[in-house]
Write a structure and sequence with these properties.
This protein is 36% helix and 26% strand. With 333 residues, it is of the alpha/beta class. An eight-stranded mixed β-sheet has the order 8-9-10-7-11-12-13-14, covered by helices on one side. A six-stranded parallel β-sheet has the order 3-2-1-4-5-6, sandwiched between helices.
């Protein structure tokens, strides 16, 4: 299966490196074939640096290449909607970086068009595909910490001045870039909430820089989540049960977990399984699902992408954060 990378930024480089490592570790089924950027010289420089066979100065030029099977979209959120639809129009399967689109309406349209064409389109939020996701759920469901009742999670970086974070025309802000991780973390443990509330602070352009989010469930469970572009956080996820606590180190790429008893004494530690970069799991699952004729991945089914996008729409409505690229696609809430 030949992979084409749409975009030539840093995350595209990580994906290219992941494919090379997969090939070196007994997975020849995914081939690093093409890269496309808006400028030909940028695509050519990326291809030379990453061992990519073909470089295209223009996205549609790469999509017109019949050899490309799967496209990895590695551009800012604001571009995803149009680019997913463009890939689908050319008959390509798609692995698109989070946030999948800017709002739920865009996601609905893009996914419907892909299903109508029988193409796989899936959101590349890596934590959904990683083995640690299953391990965290196993520990919670084992009863080792009792009944889980409360969850906290945070993700913060100091990147407030980066254009894709700071600029509304690029659908910037903490929520779509960082907040999507604590939201997914909470709901991989507690499933969909009954209530969603959020507040934020903004930059001078009206983009959210820090987010405080509370999810509530009718049975009394709650999750308190924080995302920030203004400072580096400890990235911890903590699940509080009636008999102990489960601490997950780095919700953005879980490195391990710690189990504590009711007196907060450390019971044991677990490290994550060895990984190449952490991106290999989404690539392998996408390739396997395409080979089986599926149009979505079990680790991140379309209903979950749509749910998280709708949830972020709700939060942005509460925070009064809106992007110029939304047009009429933003639902009224």
């Amino acid at each position: 299966m030949k992979l084409g990378i749409l975009g030539a930024g840093s995350i595209a480089g990580v994906m290219a490196g992941t494919v090379r490592l997969l090939n070196q570790n007994g997975h020849p089924e995914i081939e690093l074939y093409a890269v496309a950027a808006r400028q030909a010289d940028r695509a050519e420089a990326f291809a030379r640096a990453n061992g990519v066979q073909r470089a295209y100065g223009g996205y549609e030029a790469m999509l017109a290449d019949p050899a490309v099977d799967l496209v990895y979209i590695a551009t800012p959120h604001s571009h995803h909607y149009g680019q997913i639809r463009m890939c689908v129009a050319y008959g390509k399967h798609v692995l698109c970086e989070k946030a999948f689109t800017v709002n739920a309406r865009q996601a609905e349209v893009a996914l419907r068009e892909a299903r109508d064409r029988g193409l796989l389109v899936t959101e590349a939020i890596w934590t959904r595909y990683q083995p640690m996701r299953r391990r965290i759920r196993e520990v919670v469901e084992s009863g080792e910490i009792g009944t889980p009742r409360l969850l906290t999670a945070n993700l913060g970086y100091y990147n407030a001045q980066v254009p894709r974070i700071a600029r509304p025309e690029l659908a910037g802000g903490a929520l779509l870039d960082m907040g999507v991780y604590p939201l997914n973390f909470a709901e991989m443990v507690f499933d969909h909430p009954d209530g969603v509330q959020g507040v934020c602070t903004k930059n001078e352009l009206g983009v959210d820089m820090t987010d405080n989010i509370t999810l509530t469930w009718a049975d009394g469970r709650a999750a308190h989540l924080t995302a920030a572009a203004t400072g580096i956080s400890d990235r911890l996820g903590v699940i509080y049960g009636t008999a102990g606590t489960l601490v997950v180190d780095n919700i953005n790429n879980p490195e391990g977990l710690r189990v504590y008893d009711a007196d907060h004494r450390l019971v044991r530690r677990e490290s994550r399984p060895p990984q190449l970069t952490g991106y290999e799991y989404e690539l392998l699952e996408a390739a396997d699902c395409i080979a089986r004729g599926l149009t979505e991945c079990p680790s991140m089914p379309h209903r979950e992408t749509l749910h998280i996008m709708a949830e972020m729409d709700c939060l942005r409505a509460q925070m009064a954060v809106r992007y110029p690229c939304e047009g009429l696609d933003m639902p009224n809430r």
